[in-house]
Amino acid sequence: MSGFSIRNPYFIIVVSLMAAIIGLTSLVRMPVDLFPDINIPEVVVATFYTGMPPEQIETDITGRFERFFTLGAGIDHMESDRCPASA
């Protein structure tokens, strides 16, 4: 196989160019509906700070995030839940 490629370099170049042209043509003609819009329905943000009590994380960090996120458009629902401290 390698001997054939070395003896016929122009044939290999032409076959490679044909494959590239067919690939580019297929890519251009590909219907757009194969790439649908992706709507991410949910975003989860977890805040951790080692050594800080959960109440302080909620007031200092999570509260600021919530105020910032309310500026975003299209938010249907937002909630924060304090996870219990691990024992």
Word description of this protein:
- This protein has 87 residues and is mainly α.
- It has helices at 2-7, 9-29, 54-69.
- It has 3 helices and no strands.
- The N and C termini lie far apart (67 Å).
Q: Key features?
A:
elongated; 87 residues; mainly alpha; 3 helices
Oligomeric state, counting identical vs distinct chains? single chain
Largest sheet: none
| Helix content bin | 40-55%
- Overall number of strands: 0
- Taken from the alpha-carbon principal axes, the silhouette is elongated
- Terminal CA distance reads 67 Å
What would you call the structural class? mainly alpha
As residue ranges, the low-confidence spans are: none
Overall average residue pLDDT: 81
Please, how many helices? 3
The radius of gyration is: 28 Å
What is the beta-strand fraction?
under 5%
SSE string: HHH
SSE blueprint:
Blueprint: H1 2-7, H2 9-29, H3 54-69
Question: In short, what is this structure?
Answer:
The protein is an all-alpha fold and 87 residues long. The chain has helices at 2-7, 9-29, 54-69. The protein contains three helices and no strands.
